[in-house]
Amino acid sequence: MKAFYTIGLLVLSNIFMTLAWYGHLKFKELKWFENLGLITIIFISWGLALFEYFFQVPANRIGFKDNGGPFSLLQLKVIQEVITLVVFVGFSLLFFKNESFRWNHLIGFIFLILAVYFIFKK
């Protein structure tokens, strides 16, 4: 059960992280954001990133073996990176229509899945 909580919290964390890091690139298309300066955009992104931490920190605490969770530190990191890329691809395909998912991206993801396999292999 802790594994599911950990992964669910990591997904939520990465949604906020992706919005904080890349969502501002679409602000210029929103009327009330179009004239904001860089400092304002940084503070908005920072505010979104705060919510990332509300999910990321508990995910790592719940999931880490030394806290009674099922994952080692390396496993947590690899899980987080794979989730980050999956969330990012979904985000970019939904919000950035000019981005495309090509065969070389698919091969890269296959290698990431292999990385997860090898990290979890005993």
From TrEMBL:
A Pfam entry, by short name: DMT_6
Stretches that traverse the bilayer: 7-24, 36-55, 76-96, 102-120
Signal peptide start-end: none
Domain of life: Bacteria
Protein name per its UniProtKB record: Transmembrane signal peptide protein
Keywords of this entry: Membrane, Transmembrane, Transmembrane helix
Organism of origin: Imtechella halotolerans K1
